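[Discussion] Sanity-checking designs against the backbone

I'm trying to build intuition for which residues belong where. Below is a structure token string of 407 positions. I'd appreciate it if someone posts a full sequence so I can compare it with mine line by line.
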């Protein structure tokens, strides 16, 4: 067996055996296969795809590359949640406290930002003192006590994904559906939850650009998860426009807190209520409508917010200083009309350049950098009204039309 043959076989669209996949991927993990050959194989997979069986085998190879977490000592229902990523997606910060306030454990292992999409870990680390590098024991103790904890992906959990994801990110191979399935499912299965809700984002600001691909991804996720007796439910939700009004880290924490305080009249709040209700319905095995009533009550009676405060404090966070960058620039509308589009991708890039994300993995994030969208899609705007506000490294010039369409 050799890499050159394996790459050529996949390039011709042939099926690779588990042994061949293991030779290539485990070889790369052990640094016996160079990254140029792994990049070529990933690109061949992007072009010719994988069968269901190959995708299952690859997921298995990913899972077995590290340790798994055993949550069986926690005697509550456990429902994990994953989003395929988007601009302004702070849903974990809102959903975790709601769902856990209703007696369902949310064991959340999250990542940092990649590309232009932000990561939950970076958002939480923008809270002074908040610790995300929990040991396995600490994570389990916090789940037992609070039913919700967030930890960064530890080195020993699916190390294959950590290595392959970085390579995919810089070789234009992030969009392959079988590669997305093995990346996400391996982490969820190794993370120990028996029920998983996956929010598949579709649109210009998402990894998955078309509804056709989103449906294929959903089907593939469910089929592969069934080999592990895990229940996967999927939602397909739009990502053409940023989610909510805040894009950045601390600024997103502040927006999440508003929703948790019961400010629920927004698309962001509606999406969080929808996802949380599905998770409560799955965990408690109750009808969706009943779960939705419980979710609404938790937001209204302050339980969800209190749960958020407990979660933050238990991981060392201080909610007393959540200030934003002092470098502020207000962008005014050049015209009167209705906002018909806010370009998610461009807004994501802008947030990155302000300091809210990293251009390279080594770069430091400015926790107070970000964007607030004073006007969002569907809202009326008059010439001279504030369209959006920038915090952080302010650009010397900016062309509003690249970000907003007003008609
Ligand atoms: N999120 C992941 O963790 N992996 C992917 O491949 C895509 C989104």
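Best answer:
Here's mine. Compare freely.
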């Amino acid at each position: 067996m050799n890499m050159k043959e394996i790459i050529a076989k996949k390039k011709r669209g042939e099926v690779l055996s588990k042994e061949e996949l293991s030779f290539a991927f485990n070889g790369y993990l052990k640094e016996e296969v160079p990254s140029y050959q792994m990049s070529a194989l990933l690109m061949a997979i992007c072009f010719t795809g994988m069968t269901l069986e190959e995708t299952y085998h690859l997921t298995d190879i990913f899972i077995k590359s590290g340790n798994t977490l055993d949550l069986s000592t926690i005697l509550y229902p456990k429902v994990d949640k994953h989003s395929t990523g988007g601009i302004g997606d702070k849903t974990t910060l809102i959903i975790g406290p709601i769902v856990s306030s209703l007696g369902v454990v949310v064991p959340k292992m999250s990542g940092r930002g990649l590309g232009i999409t932000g990561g939950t870990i970076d958002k939480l680390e923008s809270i002074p003192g908040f610790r995300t590098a929990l040991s396995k024991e600490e994570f389990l103790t916090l789940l037992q006590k609070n039913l919700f904890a967030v930890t960064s992906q530890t080195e020993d959990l699916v190390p294959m994904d950590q290595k392959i994801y970085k390579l995919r990110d810089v070789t234009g191979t992030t969009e392959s559906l079988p590669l997305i399935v093995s990346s996400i499912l391996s982490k969820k299965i190794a993370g120990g939850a028996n029920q998983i809700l996956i929010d598949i984002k579709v649109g210009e600001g998402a990894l998955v650009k078309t509804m056709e691909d989103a449906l294929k991804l959903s089907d593939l996720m469910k089929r592969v998860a069934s080999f592990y007796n895990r229940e996967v439910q999927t939602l397909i939700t739009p990502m053409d426009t940023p989610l909510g009004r805040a894009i950045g880290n601390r600024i997103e924490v502040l927006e999440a807190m508003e929703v948790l305080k019961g400010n629920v009249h927004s698309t962001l709040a509606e999406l969080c209520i929808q996802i949380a209700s599905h998770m409560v319905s799955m965990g408690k095995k109750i009808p969706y409508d009943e779960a939705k009533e419980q979710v609404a009550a938790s937001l209204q009676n302050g339980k969800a917010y209190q749960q958020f405060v407990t979660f933050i404090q238990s991981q060392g966070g201080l909610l007393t200083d959540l200030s934003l960058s002092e470098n502020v620039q207000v962008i005014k509308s050049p015209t009167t009309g209705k906002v018909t589009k806010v370009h998610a991708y461009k807004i994501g890039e802008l947030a990155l350049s302000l300091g809210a994300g990293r251009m390279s993995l080594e770069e430091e994030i400015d926790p107070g950098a970000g964007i607030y969208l004073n006007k969002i899609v569907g809202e009326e705007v008059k010439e001279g009204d504030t369209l959006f506000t920038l915090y952080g490294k302010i650009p010397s010039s900016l062309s509003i039309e690249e970000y907003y369409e007003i008609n």
